[in-house]
Give the backbone structure.
Amino acid sequence: MSRRSETFLNFIYQEEIFLSLSSILGFVLFWHILTDLLGIFPSLILPSPEKVFFTLYEKITVPVGEERLFGHVGISVVRILVGVGLALALAVPLGILMGWYEDLDSLASPLIEVLRPIPPIAWIPLAILWFGIGLGSKVFIIAIGAFFPALINTYIGVKFVDALLIKAAKTLGAKDKDILWEVVLPASVPLIVAGIRISIGVGMMCLVAAELVAASSGLGYLIMLGGDDLKPELSLMGMILIGILGLIADRVILAVERKVIYWKKE
Amino acid sequence: MKQSSRRLFLSILSILVVILGWYALTSWAGIVPPAFLPPPQYIVTDFFRVVTSPYVGNTLVGHTLMSLQIVLGGFFSAVLIGIPLGILMGWFKRIEAVVDPLFQLLRPIPPLAWIPISLLWFGIGLKSKIFVIWLAAFVPCVINSYTAIRLTDPLLVKAALGLGVKKQRDLLWEVAIPSSLPVILGGVRIGLGAAWMTLVAAELLASDAGLGYMMQMARRALEPSVIILCMLIIGILGALMARGLKVLERRICPWVKQEEH
């Protein structure tokens, strides 16, 4: 990429930031007018933005339950990392093997097709029964949710690699093992990474659901507590933080994608 | 031909082995206690039990109908509002400028996270659940329709202009919308999946009927066989609805090559 186009991209990027910042400000202003200024919504229904912000500020030092705000955020982050990590550690190798070995595909596919339509959230009651309400049940649910997108994408990526590439490698004298490692895997990396991105998104959703249903810590717990204690500002704060967390996760995986698949042009 | 029969054989074999293994571990050898994982036959007997006599207030059929009613209500209203809004956003720059930033703000928040606050706004009844499900299905419908219209192939537009299409309206109705249909329907399918998932979450959290509620009660009563039965039904219904949409998709845009996965 030439220097000139790079500065041009920077310019666009900044203008985008400017536009989105101003629209967010407009939204907050509108929200403020509806709640605090005109009082159309009572604060028990929709608290003002400054109240939400103040709650955020307050909870950094004042604990909710057993943890302060960053403690809850940290617990949620740990749960999602362990759950998604576990899912990827199982799904990616299995997907590669299933895409590569026809017989394993025939054996595993029917089981996966039976389990896949069950939404991960429907596993929550069973997970609580099996693992209690600690880390175990949350990790299990997140792992189930994150498992299938990563598996399916890896499988498709490996199975439907351009046949021409394989033929070319064979003509050049590559052995089966070399074809898998040198041709098929690199060619399927874009799909695998896309699957991981979906996995993280689904994992976030499962995290929230698991923490809403049964938890005594984490962002989902704060959102639930806000509803139970009639403190919608606490719920809104948690929702905003979950949204920010999701955005950060997505940005990180996009950056990784760009690094790993350097040959793919945008 | 030989390859496909081998595949069929292996598929049946794996399902049989899993069910037999499940039976052997739970019922025959008794290594896994039924309170942890009930033997497969318990699920069949539980099915016949809850189909005929009520379980936590309703029969299985009643709970299922309750869930379906909510999910379809939320889903259809989301489709009816979401697709036109998305099309308008994609076609008119001004509407886009106003609505899009709000979407970008709301999008990263999982629809599930709205459940507690929607309970506060609408109470435990139907309304709060329909709202959350509406939200879950609405966002993908809008985003897909919006993106598809905005990314209408400029070649198609040029061709239409070259062929003498004069009015903007004709361009929208005859070119942009038909060419975006596959992507729009993709959004509808994502929305249905999200709606179904969100319904289960909402029913787990606060409900007095429905499949999610039934599962939650079965958990409290320590009846994992009923939980697994509900999970299977939720899975089957979700798959059936997705299949139905696929069929509809093929009807509406037969020119699109269907993928197998």
Chain A has a mean pLDDT of 88. The two ends of chain A are 11 Å apart (CA to CA). Residues 47 and 130 of chain A are 39 Å apart (CA to CA). Residues 176-213 of chain A form the longest helix (38 residues).
